[in-house]
Amino acid sequence: MKTVIHKAATRGQADHGWLKTHHTFSFANYYNPERVHFGTLRVLNDDWIDGGEGFGKHPHDNMEIITIPLKGAVQHQDSIGNKGVINAGEIQVMSAGTGIYHSEYNANKNLALELLQIWVFPDKKNVTPRYEQISLTSLEKSNEFYPILSPNADDAGVWIHQQAWFHLGDLSAGWEGNYNLKSTQSGVYVFIIEGEATVAGIELSRRDGIGISETQEIEIKAKSDSKILIMEVPMN
Questions:
Q1: Are residues 48 and 106 in the same domain?
Q2: In what order do the strands lie in the sheet with 158-159?
């Protein structure tokens, strides 16, 4: 088993006033040659956006882009005709493919927005851009990891052009269990959204992350009530 540990305080960060952001991997003005990606997981940004503020229209291509609002709501608009709001408790994915423009703003004028934005390298280039957004309410289960993303359109959750599986866990203090990898070619990146947990024997706290590879099973113990995101991605 190989591990790489990223404590919350060691992440890249920027404060633009209206935007406070932390980068687990190299992004924008933050560059660390030892933190460019974990397998096909390229970006894990933890953003705080002031009321009414956001990112104007900008382009992407050949990337799978996943947005998970943690608090508040995102106002989204893109060049393929999608316009709407993504609320906390929902997940959005864009396959940028041949190219897409979009904008993202805090949908509320007086409340801050907290969100995770995640980029995954696709396994197919130059696909037709696509958009998907779903509520996670029907998928949520207490004290187990429930699927929110996979490579398969027929599975629960959203899907992307990559052999990747994401699971969320809303765990009570004292919970113990294992995550079994779907593929021998995968590693997993575990991100502690809230709480404290021991992952593969390593103690982690809020916003800490750990990348684990060369294993087929990972032991997880919640030390407090915790919300944990598991991202299984190909390592090559």
A1: yes
A2: 2-6, 209-213, 186-194, 226-234, 165-171, 145-150, 158-159
34 and 108 housed in the same domain: yes
Q: Which CATH number covers residue 173?
A: 2.60.120.10
- Spatial neighbors of 232 by CB under 8 A, at least 6 apart, are 164, 165, 166, 167, 181, 182, 183, 186, 187, 188
Six-digit token pair at 118? 């995640």
Alpha-carbon span 132 to 97, nearest angstrom: 14
In a domain, 187, yes or no: yes
Tokens of 115: 């969100």
Domain termination site, one of 81, 103, 135:
135
The backbone torsions φ and ψ at residue 125, rounded to the nearest 5 degrees and listed phi first, read -100, 155
Q: Against a cut of 0.90, is the pTM above it?
A: yes
State pLDDT tens for residues 179-212.
999 999 999 999 999 999 999 999 999 999 999 9
DSSP, res 109 = S
Structure tokens at 3: 């591990």
Sign of CA dihedral 190, 104, 157, 227: positive
> 116 forms bridges with which residues in the sheet?
46, 68
The C-alpha atoms of residue 143 and residue 84 are separated, in whole angstroms, by 31
What is the domain range of residue 215? 145-234
The answer to whether 107 and 85 have CB atoms below 8 angstroms apart is yes
Same domain, 108 and 20: yes
Residues 6+ positions from 2 with CB-CB distance below 8 Å: 187, 212, 213, 214
